[in-house]
Write a structure and sequence with these properties.
The chain has 6 helices and 14 strands. It has about 240 residues and is α+β, with helices and mostly antiparallel strands. It has 2 domains: about 90 residues, Gyrase A, domain 2 (2-Layer Sandwich); about 140 residues, Cyclophilin-like (Cyclophilin). Strands 8-7-14-6-13-10-11 form a 7-stranded mixed beta sheet. It is elongated, with a radius of gyration of 20 Å.
Length: about 240
């Protein structure tokens, strides 16, 4: 697979590889970290401020940025390179020499009420035992952190969040559940997230929120977006039910 290298800021490098005839992916690393997230966000902002002819859209993730383009428009540009990949990858490689702005552009600050444990959080004991904690300590740790939405995920409204305390890290379930209720709060490795709709999944479910994470009838269907700052607030079953009234 074609790939080009480029430096991005002091001590950082990127790789650009062809995803299809209409897209390339810029790789900043292979881990979940705030530093990489800031690099991806900075590069994405810079590209949007300085687009090449034919740029359609970008999709940021934890440590990558996928760039979609119109190959017909790119082919007509005077960018150096024989193929569209070479033209786009070369442009991105050149752009990577710019010093990044690593300041965080914070979105909304959102408090998510969660009823932890019991029927709402069937895997909270698994998370506790995996980390040598009590269920109460799991709840305290999970609800004490401030999370950042690093990217929106595999289904509409699913927010992948960074910032979870390492002491809660737990592997995904070996056998995924056939159906996880909407609003379920889960843990997978160092990630935490909320299922916006009922769907099969393998995350360790520790609680559920009564908030509706996705509603196609709303002006903004997804409750959360990239860059939002999230905190979780523990609530009782009674408080959970009161939200539904």
């Amino acid at each position: 697979m074609s790939e080009q290298q480029g430096d991005f800021a002091s001590g950082y490098s990127i790789s650009v590889y062809a995803l299809s005839e209409k897209a390339v992916t810029v790789v900043f690393g292979n881990q979940i970290s705030e530093t990489l997230w800031r690099l991806v966000s900075s590069f994405n902002r810079l590209l949007k401020q300085n687009p090449f002819s034919g740029l359609i859209t970008t999709v940021p993730a934890y440590s990558t940025l996928t760039v979609f383009f119109d190959p017909l428009k790119v082919a007509l540009t005077d960018l150096p390179g024989k193929s569209c990949y070479e033209k786009v990858a070369g442009y991105l490689k050149k752009m990577s020499h710019s010093e990044p702005d690593l300041t965080v552009q914070v979105g909304n600050q959102v408090v998510i009420p969660v009823c932890y444990g019991g029927n709402f959080g069937p895997d909270i004991l698994t998370v506790a035992q995996n980390n040598g904690l009590t269920e109460t300590e799991v709840i305290a740790l999970h609800s004490s952190a401030v999370y950042s939405v690093y990217m929106m995920g595999f289904i509409p409204g699913f927010a992948y969040m960074g910032g979870m305390p390492p002491g809660l890290s737990t592997p995904r379930k070996e056998v995924p559940r056939a159906a996880i209720p909407a609003g379920s709060v889960g843990i997978a490795g160092l990630q935490t997230g909320i299922y916006p709709i009922e769907i099969p999944g393998g995350w360790q479910i520790i609680g559920r929120t009564p908030l509706q994470l996705f509603n196609a009838d709303r002006e903004s269907p997804a409750l959360l977006k990239g860059g939002d700052s999230i905190t979780f607030k523990a609530i009782t079953t009674e408080e959970f039910n009161a939200y539904l009234v």
